[in-house]
Amino acid sequence: MEEEDALCLRHFDSLPDLLALVRKGILYRMMGRRVSPYRRQDKLREQHRRRGLAFRWSMPLRHYGPCPHCDERFTEIAYHLENPAGRQEGTRNLGLRESQIHAVRVHGRRFTDVQRTFLNGLRQVAEMKE
Questions:
Q1: pLDDT at residue 10 greater than cutoff 70
Q2: Percent helix, strand and coil across the chain, each to the nearest 5
Q3: CA 58 from chain center: how many Å?
Q4: Residue 76's domain spans which residues?
Q5: Alpha helices in 1-130, H assignment, sequence order
Q6: For residues 90 and 116, is the Cβ–Cβ distance under 8 A?
Q7: What is the pLDDT at residue 94?
Q8: With bands split at pLDDT 50, 70 and 90, how would you rate the model's confidence at 1?
Q9: How far apart, in whole angstroms, are the C-alpha atoms of residue 125 and residue 54?
């Protein structure tokens, strides 16, 4: 795997995964009744937007994504990555699929230029905060 793509994967992995936070039970119940994890994820998305925080919004799809390079099958997930602090073209929003992440992580495929621009923008924001 190229070093630049490995760094981009680290940036992807470092984004708060809103659905994972909801499923861990953080703010999962509201006023004593169970709330849909997807509705709760949407509320967390709006909170992150208001605070100007980057995040990963996830939507598992109803089918398995078979990898064309190996025998692995996995739930396909549509990711929406958002970085409200992104100032340059291509650094505010990005859509990815689990199959794309798998191809990079497991098979050494490359991120596209657009994907690298967004993910590297996350690094620049983190450095500005330090």
A1: yes
A2: 45, 25, 30
A3: 7
A4: 3-129
A5: 3-14, 18-23, 37-51, 98-107, 113-129
A6: no
A7: 93
A8: confident
A9: 9
Nearest Cα to Cα of residue 91 among 127, 118, 109, 67: 118
- What is the number of domains present in the chain? 1
**How far apart are the two ends of the chain, measured CA to CA in Å?**
28
CA distances from 12 to 2, 36, 94, 97, 98 (A): 15, 25, 11, 12, 11
Please write the tens of the pLDDT for every residue from 14-72: 999 999 988 877 555 555 566 788 888 999 999 999 999 999 999 999 888 778 888 88
Give me the pLDDT at residue 29, please. Answer: 54
- Read off the DSSP letter of residue 37: H
Q: Kindly report whether the global pTM for this prediction surpasses the value 0.85.
A: no
Chain centroid to Cα 60, Å, comes to 12
